[in-house]
Amino acid sequence: MPESDTAHRSSADRAARPLAVVSNREPYLHSLAEDGTVSWSPTTGGVAVALDALMHERGGVWIAHGAGDADRLVVDAHDRVSVPPDAPSYPLRRIWLTEAEEHHYYEGFANEGLWPLCHVAHVKPIFRAEDWRAYQAVNERFARAVEEELPDPAAPVFIQDYHLTLVARHLRALRPDVRIALFWHIPFPHPDQLRICPYRREILEGLVASDLVAFQLERDRRNFLAAARTELGAKVSRSRVYFQNRSTTVYAVPIGVDFDRIQAVTHGPELEAEKERLRRELRIDTPLVGIGVDRLDYTKGIPERLDALDRLFTRRPELRRQLTFVQVAVPSRSKLESYAAVEGDIDQRVAAINARHAGDGLAGGPIRYRKSALRIRRLVALYRLADFCIVSSLHDGMNLVAKEFVAAREDLDGVLVLSEFAGAAQELGDAVIINPYDVGGFADGLEQALDMALEERQRRMRALRRVVAGRDVVQWASDILEGLEHLDPRSMPAPPGSAPRKAPSDTRIVSTSSPTAGR
Ligand code: G6P
Fold first, then answer.
1. Which atom of ligand 1 approaches the CA of 46 most closely?
2. Nearest to 285 by CA among 366, 350, 360
């Protein structure tokens, strides 16, 4: 066989190798209706959709917390269920948590501790010893389940996010040779901020037990390397951490969206009808439409967005008759005080703006507020209905809504108004970039979006689409997985006391710097 064929076949073999994905949030959830019937729904949100696409392509097993109230009713004796439920493609192994474990591990340590620690959104991180104990125990349980489920000894393990920082360490103790990558989806804090966490050293040790740790942005990668050096005393080179006789490769690999799937929806025969249904349901009778689509989270800058809209309607009262703003917010982590507080704040602001800018025979005011998730077809129709889409995060790892909006705009219209503090701003410099803390500047940005000429809108959207199509979710996943496959096992351990080895010249991984919006 010619050498090129061999090379081709080995890369095809690699592509076909099944995978173990591990995440807290499951991709499909089963729930029980009042009449006792079981229904299911896919998890909305960019990451779950992205990893699901990856599982369809590669096969393997997905291990996640079974959080649905009917999840236990549909699993087999090994706690597995085939998903998607309507067209089974791969097994989902569910991990069961007690109420106390969920409270301390998920709500407490992950979401009252690590989440605010990693996001500059002025919510104080809370670290409690009992949360930490539960977090450790649950991470160990996840590791044991991965070990049981590994489809084959060479199958790579892909760990998703900050809930599971200790899994690699436990798994490596059980299976020293397993190949592990972890993707850190959210911002990684500066070492000064990380010091708030009393358990930072254990978390960093857990992370460097992976062979590869990937972040969204170059900034996150640099923060992690600096923390490994200062907190662990590890040797650090440009893209590796050397600690306790092993090395970990560290890259920045920004996540993308499933561009083709979104395109396919825009080509569907239902798009126009779906847009009309949305118009009717949301009572939209204005020529202009703005939208925001978010998880209901204090990091998303929804109150700041409402303030800017308030300013806009005050500056240009004629817009009250011309513009409807649709805010879709998907309730999230609602048991936590910090989330209940932002939800209450948004409710009040929406009511106040609607009261202030209604009148003159206008019923209801200009804001339509929906607190529920939309399935992909409706979501894409909403994206296509919009003259502008606002993403105003106070701090965000990436923000996939920004990229989804662009992917849906094959018509080359619509303006993206994007916070400079969303990771996506690093790549999407042709959006109208705003600072959510500057209410006047934010309102200027909205005016700029509304007044922009068609030619300019098209020029910007064309440029944005080139970026989003060029780095979709398949590219993201294969960058991480191929990076993992290509690590040379012989180069991994660093002899004690030796100088750091030179970083590999693996050019398939793209490490983004900041070509555009300043952060
Ligand atoms: C962020 C996190 C994900 C998480 C998602 C939804 O995007 O990075 O890991 O799954 O939010 O949050 P939830 O708490 O509902 O899983």
1. 7
2. 366
pTM (global) more than 0.85: yes
Domains of the chain: 3-255+485-491 (3.40.50.2000), 264-470 (3.40.50.2000)
d(CA 457, CA 437): 25
Q: Which atom of ligand 1 is nearest to the CA of 163?
A: 9
CB of residue 104 inside a 6 A radius of ligand 1: no
Which candidate, 301, 172, 198, 248, places its Cα nearest to that of 484? 248
pLDDT value at position 47?
76
Compute the distance from residue 24 Cα to the ligand 1 centre, in Å: 8
pLDDT in tens, 98-156: 999 999 999 999 999 999 999 999 999 999 999 999 999 999 999 999 999 998 888 99
Distance 27 CA to ligand 1 centre (A): 11
DSSP for 294-316 reads EES-GGG-HHHHHHHHHHHHHH-
DSSP, collapsed to helix, strand or coil, labels residue 63 as strand
Please list, residue by residue across 390-422, b when 16 or more beta carbons sit within 10 angstroms of its beta carbon and e when fewer do.
bbbbbbbbbbbbbbbbbbbbeeeebbbbbbbbb
pLDDT score of 493 more than 90: no
Q: Give the single-character DSSP code of 24.
A: S
